[in-house]
Structures are given as structure tokens and as C-alpha cells.
Amino acid sequence: MPALIQALANHGFSAEAVATTGPATAGALAARAATAGSEIVFACGGDGTVHEVLQGLVGTETALGIVPMGTANALARNLRLSLDPLLAAAQQASAAPVRIAVGQVLYESPCGIAQQERSRRYFTVMAGAGPDGALVYSLLTSQKSAMGRAAYYAHAGRLFFTRSFRPFRVTYRLRGSMTWQDEPAVSVIAARIDNLGGIFSRLTPGGSLHADTLRLFLARPPASASLPSWFVFGQLGIHRANPWLRTLDVAELRCESSADKPIHAQADGEWIGRLPISVSLAPAALSVLVPFAIPPS
């Protein structure tokens, strides 16, 4: 942190390091900094830290900067930032803030024995339900930050190939249409970037922070065919030839389940609960430092 603060000082910024005190505390710290008039808040960590900071900056004029220190660093990679923290800070020191839309998920969070309240979570990478939600839920009790990428992949492989995933109902509305369509799915990802990193890098082609839609990937049942094919066809770069995968640009979507077992959901790799969820875009909701021109999709 001292080296990072000095690097920013070299570019004319007066910076202060503020430590989180536990999970889900970064958002409040970011909101406090925005209220105090901070020009930029740098999220120093992985995608989980960025996700928390994001919650406190949406709707403010304070820009989000990223100092990648995590495992995947998916958003940082899509912004083409260096994975060296000091170089990443230097890249953003001269970058102009760009206003972008962010994804938003409405979900039900328990607030009492017989009550539930509607909560909102914003995301910049992706939100989903099904196997990805089950994976992040299973990691809640593990030391995710200490697993390392290889161990993380092994854990994901065991989950995907040893557990059966039941279908659920997805309704969606295409851009410019007021008509809702629905179909069954075993997995859904609404993406805002086109590269999730690592072996998952080719699962969400066409996602863009600058798009005014969500790129929806819908895996049809049965899971035993659609999930392996999504991965294999993706690695080969031929998603369009996959008969079990639907790729759509949607304005919003809803996921509901009638299954006895809960179906888990996630946003930016963080567990948010169980279905039902509603996903849409909050237009021009966040300023983010973009050091390189990234053309809209």
C-alpha cells in the first residue's frame, strides 16, 4: 500500500489507504468516500472486492478504479489493465472516467422467520443461476482466496460432473420488445464482459460493458448434455453450433424455480441467495476508469 500511494502521488493524486474490517464492509467504506467528495475509489483486490466497492459507488459521481490483487481479476483483464498493481495504478492515473450501465439483480433475502424482503445487488461481470450459483455457494465454507486457480477448477469439475442440476423457468424480454418469452434452462448467465478468465475465458463471448443490453447465455436441459457442450463448444469458438445453448441480447430476464431443491444464484462470483431473481440494467449508473479505448459491441 505505501508503494501504491507513492505511485499515485507521482501522478499528482493525494491517496489514502482504508482497510476493510470484514466481509461486506467495502461498500460502506466506498459510499462514505464518495459522500466525502473523493474523486476516485480504487478497489484493491479481486473481483469480490471490486463487487463490494461497486455497491457503494453506483449512482455517485466518484469513479471506480481497480488495483488487481485477486485470482481471476476478470473485470481488470477486460479493461486491459496490467496485473502488476503499481502498473495498473499508473495506467489509470491518466485515464478519463467513462459512464457505463451496470447489471442489477433483485432477489429475496431472509429478514425474519416468516418474512423476506427484496434486495438489490449490482454487478459488472456477470450474474447467473444454476451450476455457477451452486459453485459459489459451495465455496462459502472454504478458503476461496487460498485455493489457487487449479484447486478452484478441480472443485468446479467435481461439482459439475457429480451433481444433477434441475431445470428452472427463464422469462426474458429482447431489446426493443415488450413481449416476454420463456423457456426452461439448467443454467443461465447474464454477462457484461466477454472474457471470464482462465478455462472459462470463452464461455461468454460478446459481453460488453458498453452495451445497452445483457448478453444472455441459456443452457437448455438436460444438464448432462448442455453443460459439457457449453464448455467444449466454447473452447472451440463455435457457440453458434451448440444446439443446447441459446445466446440472446436481452433487456431483462427473470428466473423462477418450482423444484423442491433450491437453485442458487450469484452476482460477480458472490452468492446472493436462491431463485427467484430478476436481472436488468441500470443505465449510466457508474463511472469507471478506462485506460484504453474499448469499442462498443
* Overall CATH class of the largest domain: Mainly Beta
- Pick out the low-confidence regions: none
How many structural domains does the protein architecture include? 2
Average residue pLDDT:
89
Count of DSSP strands: 13
Percent helix: 25-40%
The CATH topology of the largest domain, please? Tumour Suppressor Smad4
CATH architecture of the largest domain: Sandwich
| Overall 3D shape | globular
Q: The biggest beta sheet, please?
A: 13 strands, mixed
Can you offer a commentary on this structure?
With 297 residues, the protein is an alpha+beta fold. It folds into two domains: 2-95, Rossmann fold (3-Layer(aba) Sandwich), CATH 3.40.50; 103-282, Tumour Suppressor Smad4. The protein has eight helices and 13 strands. Strands 1, 2, 3, 4, 5, 6, 7, 8, 9, 10, 11, 12 and 13 form a 13-stranded mixed sheet that branches. Strand 6 (168-174) and strand 7 form a beta hairpin. Helix 1 runs parallel beside helix 5 (85-93) and helix 2 (26-35) packs across helix 3. The radius of gyration is 19 Å and the shape is globular. 40% of the residues are buried. The mean pLDDT is 89.
Question: What is the topological layout?
Answer:
Layout: H1 2-9, H2 26-35, E1 40-45, H3 47-57, E2 63-68, H4 74-78, H5 85-93, E3 97-110, E4 116-123, E5 126-129, H6 131-138, H7 144-162, E6 168-174, E7 180-185, E8 187-191, E9 214-219, H8 223-236, E10 245-256, E11 264-267, E12 270-274, E13 277-289
Parallel strand pairs: 1-2, 2-13
Antiparallel strand pairs: 3-4, 3-13, 5-8, 5-11, 6-7, 6-10, 8-9, 9-10, 10-13, 11-12
Helix pairs in contact: 1-5, 2-3
